[in-house]
């Protein structure tokens, strides 16, 4: 197994985070307390820390132009196998998640061609999930 990353973010409500990350995204829950909860985000340790004063508007997010879209920065996510990415798109669409950048294939026909989508969690954290037909050959292609 490659080295898993550890990422901790702020959320405005732990119950809301459990519904979004645990139920909607399907991340198994690990350790927790009243003020934080660990999730297994596709093999990585992802922790939501409570900040009840946090807003959820995403307006403080900076956007950089990439392939004709304003990509929210900062953002995080996971590179998935294409079939897992497609299944996640379906699950999010059926749940009525509003995409910041609708699922599509960017850099078509170029090195690094990838399927991608962006959306916000209920606390305003920007997420990107992407997939490549050949992860090892395309992830760092120039």
Automatic annotation (TrEMBL):
Signal peptide: none annotated. Pfam families: Glyoxalase. Residues 3-132 form the VOC domain. It comes from the Bacteria. InterPro entries: Glyas_Bleomycin-R_OHBP_Dase (IPR029068), Glyas_Fos-R_dOase_dom (IPR004360), VOC_core (IPR037523). This is VOC domain-containing protein. It comes from Modicisalibacter muralis.
